Amino acid sequence: MNVSNTTTGSASSLLRHPASSSTSSSQSQSHLQSRIASKRAELENLRQLRDLSADLATQLTALEEKLATLRDGTQSVALVLANWDNVLRAISMAASMLRPVYLSHACSGISRMAVERCCK
Predict the structure, then answer these.
(1) Torsion angle of alpha carbons 41, 47, 49, 55, nearest 10°?
(2) Who has greater pLDDT, 16 or 29?
(3) Structural domain of residue 77, as residue ranges?
(4) How many domains does the chain have?
C-alpha cells in the first residue's frame, strides 16, 4: 500500500508542478506584458514632453525677440523724452527773443505776420 501511495503521491505532485509551472510562466508573461505596456506609455509621454518642450522653446525664442524690440523701442522713447527738455528750452529761448521784437513792432502797428517775415 505504501508503494502505491508513494507512486500515486509522486504522480500527483508531478501533475501539480507542470500546472504551477505554466501558471508561473503565464504570470511572468502577464507581468512582462504589463511592464512593456507601462514602458510604452512612458515612452509616449516622453515623446509628448519632448514635442511640448520644443514648442515652448520656440515660443520663448519669439518672446525674446519681442522683448528685444520693446527694449529698443523703450530706449528710443527715453532718448526722445530726454531731448524734449532741450527742445522746450530752445523754444522758450526763441520765444523770449521774439517777444521783444514783436512787442516793439506791435506798438508801431505792424501785424504779427509782418513781424515774422521781418525777423526771419
Answers:
(1) -150
(2) 29
(3) 2-119
(4) 1
